[in-house]
Amino acid sequence: MKADIAFAWHDGFKLGYMPMDETHEEFVVIVNAMLVCPESNLLRYLEEFMAHAESHFAQELAWMMETAYPNTDCHVEQHDAVLKSVKEVHAYLLEGGDASEARRLAQSLASWFPGHADYLDSALAHWMVKKKFGGVPIVLRRNLGTHLP
After folding, report:
1. For the chain, what are the domain ranges?
2. Which residues contact 92 (CB under 8 A, 6 or more apart)?
3. Which of 17, 41, 70, 108 is most buried as measured by Cβ atoms within 10 A of its Cβ?
4. 11-146: CATH homologous superfamily?
5. What is the signed CA dihedral for 21, 121, 12, 1, rounded to 10 degrees?
6. Residue 82 Cα to chain centre, angstroms
7. What SS3 class is residue 80?
8. What is the mean pLDDT of residues 88-100?
């Protein structure tokens, strides 16, 4: 693994709903930046991630509300928990706390994301494609063996 890549986007993360896949790729890029950047840049990337997460989660909530998605509550609970943690770490850093706490948060986000995407987001992607296009997502994944454990 290259030193500047600790958490990389790969086709295994694709869910087949392009707006969601694009947002998820941005999520992965920012979390990776938090994992590999110098400690002096952690606050900046944490703030970038916080803005991303607020927009990302609001977009998914809007999709769920617009389409009467049946699993909204569970999905939103996870998003709310992530945002709560991000805001707590941000406040801690602004009060002069150890910046490495943002790195620990990024490690937790990198561990959390695959499961959240595989279960909750994949169901939402399936729902969105069905509602918008009347079908199911078709996902083409390349070279998975080079990216997954």
Report:
1. 11-146
2. 101
3. 17
4. Hemerythrin-like (1.20.120.50)
5. 90
6. 10
7. helix
8. 96
In a 3-state reduction of DSSP, which class is residue 124?
A: helix
CA torsion sign, 125 to 51 to 93 to 85?
A: negative
- Report d(CA 132, CA 147) in Å as an integer: 31
Closest CA to 80 of 88, 69, 92, 91: 88
As a whole number of angstroms, the distance between CA 48 and CA 30 comes to: 7
Q: What is the pLDDT, as a whole number, of residue 149?
A: 46
pLDDT in tens, 26-59: 999 999 999 999 999 999 999 999 999 999 999 9
Give the DSSP letter string of 3-40. Answer: TT-SS---GGG--S-HHHHHHHHHHHHHHHHHHHS-GG
Q: Is the pTM of this model over 0.85?
A: yes
Q: What is the DSSP letter of 12?
A: G
Distance from C-alpha of 113 to C-alpha of 53, rounded to nearest angstrom: 12
Q: Residue 84's CB: how many other CB atoms inside 10 A?
A: 10
Dihedral sign (CA 65, 128, 77, 108): negative
DSSP structural state of residue 45:
H
